[in-house]
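Feature request, filed as a ticket because there's no other form

It would be nice if the structure record came with a short human-readable summary line next to the tokens. Right now we just get the raw output. Example of a typical job, pasted below so the devs can see what we mean:
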Amino acid sequence: VIFSNTNSLARYLQGHEVDVMTAKATCDATMKTLSGCRDEEMFSLVWEKAKKTAKIIREMASESDEDKTSRRKKNPSKRLQALVGEISEEESISFSYTDVQRGRIEVFYDAIDRVLSELKERFANEDNNILMSLAKI
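Raw output as currently delivered:
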């Protein structure tokens, strides 16, 4: 979602001839599009595609020889957990998200918000306002 919507802006900004007015207009359009993608419908589309991709990868992994000779997962010792300040899962009393909620909150919305924040920071500061005023002259 992010790459497909920011690709035209990235190509334009990396081009040989960059016009400040066009760059700002392209950035504004990109930010508007990304803001529009930040909804439940778009998340559902991305989540379904991710599930299909994960299924394909699992099938490929199960066909490989490495999966047949998988190693036992080694848990860190209680002493090591105590040294680094971790507590075991049983001792933890916290609200846990489902995979879908975690994907929505910690990945999907967070990624879009970070890109929007960076674009705003780069294109909405005082220096850019001065540059835009000079470009109009």
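Something like this underneath would help us a lot:
The helical segments are 2-13, 20-37, 40-63, 65-68, 78-83, 99-123, 126-136.
Residues 1-50+98-137 form one domain.
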